[in-house]
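Notes from the 1:1 (GR / supervisor)

We went over the backlog. Supervisor wanted to see one worked example end to end before approving the batch request, so GR pasted a single chain during the call. The sequence is below; no edits were made to it. Supervisor asked that the structure be written out right there so they could see what the output format looks like.
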Amino acid sequence: MLKENFLWGGAIAANQFEGGYNEGGRGLATSDTKTNGSLTRKRKHSFLDEHNQIIYLHESEWISHQYQAVIDQDIYYPSHKAVDFYHCYKEDIALMAEMGFKCFRMSISWTRIFPQGNEEKPNEEGLKFYDQVFDECLKYGIEPVVTINHFDMPIYLAQHQDGWLSRQTIDCHLRYCQTLFERYKGKVKYWMTFNEINLLRGYATLGIHEMTPQKYYQALHHIFIASALTVQLGHQIDKNNQIGMMLANILTYPESCNPQDVALELNVSRRLKYLFADVQCRGYYPSYALKLMEKENIQLVKEESDDQILKNGCVDYIGFSYYNSGVVTTREDAGMALGNGVQMAHNPYLKESAWKWPIDPIGLRISLNLLWDRYQKPLFIVENGLGAEDHVEEDGSIHDDYRIDYMRDHIIEMKKAVEEDGVDLIGYTPWGCIDLVSAGTGEMKKRYGMIYVDMDDEGKGTLKRMKKDSFYWYQKVIQSHGEEL
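Structure output shown during the call:
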């Protein structure tokens, strides 16, 4: 059986859900310059070039230091309004309570608390907003689970100090964390430091211009130090705090028993996933990572106390996302499949979503066992779900059996990992419990929620919330503690 206090709930992120980007004293984040896109057209950021002309550049394109991030009033930026949780939080939390949520995983917008990211004093209006959100959750007995940094970088820090490339950003972030821990002591117990830390890359999440491998690993080191210091600070301020990491858990399989495929999969798993968890859970860089950096001629600039900081700042639990698995192959002619920011070979044994993500429920059980066996730390599935196009019928009903099937199959495997394999699992919060903007493309038509939001890809709609069939199904799942599926 699942634990009696197992945390059933749902998950969102501020930059995809909250809106109110220029209200309440909030400053601009890099996500605010990100346009909408599609499956075939990547999202871009808007900048002023040296001739004061607005240009649009993808993160993979060359961005020189003279470019300044700007907002183009003629372009739609999904994060600006998102689905307007900023004004609809009471209605949304009431719907979560009706579903029976035991917890609500959300993130706090850094620039709502520190508009530039480097101020000495926080923005009181921003702090009050989250006070209201947490109070509303607690009114219904819903435990807030808060991601401190969910793909969030103040534009000011990106423009003036290359974001996480600067050691100073650690101090800015720690001041932000201290403010949160002190302000919300007694209201928030579960925290996570950096969302999908292994997917942080480029201007949007790291704030770095002209990315190179050296800059990437240096920025990552600063983030590891920031996470470890955050864990220590959170425990000092409130001994009841549980502070975890958050990993994009993309399970990989070798395509064949060819030893070359198996060796490649080991290397990919280390670079894609385990490096990040090893440092945050074990408190040091594993030998394979040191050899990797040595081979690529990467020289980390470290302070004398850094190794001890990492050792003293190990996380309490591992939060992770799981959407799909992937296949690793040495074949050069392999067909490719997508999945949460990573492109891998096609798996003929699995069905795929409309967005070409492989659907692999058994992979969730495998992932839970791999992480539990490796780290022996409590696990928390904080993202899982199916992105699909939903259609509203004439009577207002929304039939999403495909989403119910996806969630049911994954919950079945989740329960097996706990009940048959002995995995220690804290909870389950499917992604986008209320429809939100896609992080990858900025679309609304790629919906994850059990609650429909009337909004299209161009930001048009009434924002009306409507219950899908999955709403009532998940309500029964929670009421029965996972027995009625």
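Supervisor's comment: The chain has a mean pLDDT of 94.
Batch request approved.
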